[in-house]
Design a protein that fits this description.
InterPro entries: 4Fe4S_Fe-S-bd (IPR017896), 4Fe4S_Fe_S_CS (IPR017900), PSI_iron-sulfur_center (IPR050157)
Structural class: alpha+beta
Pfam families: Fer4_7
Shape: elongated
Bound molecules: iron/sulfur cluster
GO molecular function, one term: metal ion binding
Keywords: 4Fe-4S, Iron, Iron-sulfur, Metal-binding
CATH architecture of the largest domain: 2-Layer Sandwich
Strand order of the largest sheet: 2-3-5
Radius of gyration: 26 Å
Number of domains: 2
CATH topology of the largest domain: Alpha-Beta Plaits
Distance between the termini: 97 Å
Organism: Azospirillum lipoferum
Helix content: 25-40%
Oligomer: single chain
Length: about 180
């Protein structure tokens, strides 16, 4: 009898399963879908270094591009990659992760390609840095924005020399 009462009670009660529209809002601090912005990425490797389960990796097409790879199957959504990325190229959005732009077609991998660009001074292929990163690291010399790291080092060295030994800096400029 008791069992019948329970069954009847369950049948007459409205559904307790929430429809999608009734679901509570995802908290803003929720670490969900991971996104990567290739235009901000400097391929520094920090994200892969701090990722304990090795969910992030890189491959290279020498002289052409660096590819940033993410495998959701190894991700613990700790957020350390986004927290430590110096240019905020990674974000973990407050959304449940869904299918990704997987080159493998399994929806579990994300691939983001950082295209190399030729140095405007020597022509060497290098990862272009976001303007804000160049300004923070090297100042705002407009002519040096397209330089590769070697040429930026050379330019910084030349400026340093001209500040301390003007005559020697002139020689460096002529050498190059
Ligand atoms: S995503 Fe950020 S931390 Fe990772 S390689 Fe790019 S710039 Fe570095
Ligand atoms: S959220 Fe954590 S586990 Fe996932 S890729 Fe980033 S560092 Fe690795």
């Amino acid at each position: 009898m008791a069992m019948l009462k329970t069954i009847l009670g369950n049948l007459l009660r409205p559904s307790r399963t929430r429809a999608p529209a009734d679901m509570p809002d995802v908290p803003t601090v929720y670490r969900g879908a991971l996104a990567h912005d290739a235009a901000r990425c400097t391929a520094c490797g920090t994200c892969a270094f701090v990722c304990a389960p090795k969910a992030i990796s890189f491959t290279q097409d020498p002289g052409v591009s660096v590819s940033w790879h993410f495998f959701i199957g190894q991700c613990s959504f700790c957020g350390l990659c986004a927290q430590n990325c110096p240019t905020q190229a990674i974000s973990l959005d407050a959304e449940v992760p869904t299918g990704m732009n997987s080159a493998a077609g399994d929806g579990l991998r994300l691939e983001s390609i950082v295209r190399l660009q030729p140095c405007t001074r020597c022509g060497a292929a290098h990862v272009p840095l976001p303007d804000a990163a160049i300004a923070a690291l090297w100042g705002v010399e407009e002519a040096e924005r397209g330089y590769c790291p070697d040429c930026r080092r050379w330019a910084a060295s030349a400026r340093l020399r001209s500040a301390f030994i003007p005559a020697a800096a002139e020689e460096v400029h002529h050498e190059r």
